[in-house]
Design brief:
Elements (H helix, E strand, L loop, with lengths): L11 H7 L5 H8 L5 E5 L5 H8 L3 E6 L2 H10 L4 E4 L12 E7 L7 H11 E14 L4 H10 L23 E12 L3 H6 L2 H4 L3 H17 L8 E14 L2
Parallel strand pairs: 1-2, 1-4, 2-3, 4-5
Antiparallel strand pairs: 5-7, 6-7
Keywords: Methyltransferase, Transferase
GO molecular function, one term: methyltransferase activity
Protein name: Class I SAM-dependent methyltransferase
């Protein structure tokens, strides 16, 4: 993984407390409803791990950042949580039925990661990459994205991350809409959990803090509200092992 991907460790607990989970319908679309053995690759603090458990699956989590793994281990003490990366997966050949990647595929080095994911999957296994993306069709969310930048990765109608052959079939895309309720005064925390904030200099972080606070206190959809429903679209791509 690239170094910005490893910027989250210093704020692992904040990340875990404010980032959205993944809706079970998106997981079902991606890997099916029947319980299977799943590798959560680039698992972070285990947000997707918890959703996979909720959908009935057996989960093994792999994450390169020690601080993120520590939070995941607290959240999911009965789950195997291993040190490793997409480019060096610490599992035997053909040992899982599905590999699911939440909010992390764009950090991978595909020419190294794709053969590894192919190796650990059983015959006809599924690889699914998914992203929770703020829904900018909501005006206040569009205003937020105007301040912090859009979350465009994963929303293209065609797979944007290069060829997956000869390891996998052509990706199919599915969208699932959902909302996550957060305290209005934690809108800044949502942005502080992003790599772009964590790697920004102090002046840029101060600008973001200031402008987001102003949005939360002046936008009619947000002002004087204790909580807000943040709309998301979960974009998932699925492909089969060849």
């Amino acid at each position: 993984m690239s170094s910005p991907a490893l910027s989250f460790g210093s704020t692992a607990r904040l990340y875990d407390s404010i980032r959205p989970t993944y809706p079970v319908p998106a997981i079902t679309w991606a890997i099916g409803a029947e319980p299977v053995r799943v590798l959560d690759l680039g698992a972070g603090t285990g947000l997707l791990t918890g959703a996979l458990h909720a959908a009935g699956h057996e989960v093994i989590a792999v994450e390169p950042d020690e601080q993120m793994r520590a939070v995941a281990a607290e959240r999911h003490p009965d789950t195997r949580i291993l040190a490793g990366s997409a480019e060096d997966i610490p599992l035997p050949d053909e040992s899982v039925d599905a590999v699911v990647v939440g909010q992390a595929y764009h950090w991978f080095t595909p020419q190294d990661a794709l053969p590894q994911m192919h190796r650990v999957l059983r015959a006809d296994g599924v690889l699914a990459a998914m992203w929770n993306i703020r829904d900018d069709r909501t005006p206040w969310v569009a205003a937020l994205s105007g301040i912090v930048g859009s979350e465009g990765y994963g929303m293209e109608s065609a797979w944007p991350y290069g060829p997956v052959t000869p390891w996998f079939t052509d990706p199919e895309r599915g969208l699932t809409e959902h909302t996550v309720t957060v305290p209005t005064d934690r809108l800044t925390d949502l942005v502080r959990s992003r790599s772009s904030y964590l790697t920004a200099d102090a002046a840029e972080q101060a600008r973001l803090d200031r402008e987001i606070t102003e949005l939360a206190t002046t936008d009619p959809a947000l002002a004087d509200r204790d909580t807000i429903d943040v709309p998301y679209r979960t974009c998932a791509y699925r492909m089969r092992r060849i």
